[in-house]
Amino acid sequence: xxKKFLIFSLLPCVCFAQANVDDSKRLGEFLKEKSQGVxxxxxxxxxxxxxxAFITSNQYLSQKVDIPSFSLDGNVYIDYKKVVDGIGFGFKxxxxxxxxxMKGGSAIVDTSYLFAETDKLGEFRFGYSKSAxxxxxxxxxxxxxxxxxxxxxFTPVFFAQSSGSILGTGFDKDDxxxxxxxxxxxxxxxxxxxxxxxxxxxxxxLFKEKLNKSERDYSIAQNFAxxxxxxxxxxxxxxxxxxxxxxxxxxxxxxxxxxxxxxxxASDPRNVQGYNVGxxxxxxKYKLALGYTDNINSMIPKVLSNDVRDDAGNIVGMxxxxxxxxxxxxxxxxxxxxxxxxxxxxxxxxxxxxxxRVTSNIATVAVQYNMDKVVSAFVEYNNIRAxxxxxxxxxxxxxxxxxxxxxxxxxxANLFIIGAKINI
Length: 424
Prior knowledge:
Number of strands: 16
Shape: globular
Strand content: over 45%
Low-confidence stretches: 1-22, 153-169, 204-223, 392-403
Radius of gyration: 22 Å
Number of domains: 1
Number of helices: 6
CATH topology: Porin
Helix content: 10-25%
Strand order of the largest sheet: 1-2-3-4-5-6-7-8-9-10-11-12-13-14-15-16
């Protein structure tokens, strides 16, 4: 009965989307046609997507997490590009709307930058954009369809509480909220390069000013030495090589890395060091992705104590052998004209010491049906298993666990998602 209710509740959304798109044109295409010949507007492009989803789950968590039955996830991008004497210039603005599963739940501008580009020199960006390390990183999300949980920012940390488990795209993944300069080279015989620099990470503002953060979001959950930690002078880079024919065999190999200064008002953290290596193999409509990330000992305190537990046995700090996480993942996908299918597996490990660690494991299967180029329907299943290290903050837990430290717990959940996508 429940499944039938979810399916029939979704149909009005799908029918509404189809009824309001002339001849199955995307809204961006429709506006582009109507703006031809209009100064400024003909160089403006609108694109984006909207995901509506119903979620059910059964959970075995150390602390209960309320999962709403409905989620809305939207992106709208406005691009302006003018070409004069072989030089292209313009801007890009991206706005995200989040509700339901996503933390925050409000609309935010996550992309806003100016750019200039030429065929010989590539593209130069200045503003709030993805870094080169982020752009060149590869994970199984690159070949996943459906809701694509990992690529939507719906991280294992949401289920795993304040676990410190990480997705593994590194410290340069800041959702575009740090001001940066980025250069992306043109593709030369299959080779591409990228480099970016940010004076301060977004965490320099969020952590020091405590903006948009609650207590449980601080410290270990964000891979930092303490709640005052932040990053300065962040450099990221990437290089990739692509080979083959999109309709036959093709492949992409990429390496990305990040390096930055670690700062803190309360401790002496190590600098940020990390890298991602990944590859995507394709043959016709099939794709296989492999990704590996190592955040090494980024932001781990330089001085580690052997006495990392309180009298109750709770973790109160990091000991010798601690590192900030290693991640491996694999995904395979089939992308037909109508049907898309994918399966993936994600595994992350972060050490508190030689003997203590937290882990996140996610297995995902998704099926998507494309009614046309505008509307798609999907079903997705995620099995989440994590060993977490939840921080003890409130007095109730202080009494239960005997101190203001961290307690290891096992968390499990089965997440079922059914929904629709509307491409703008």
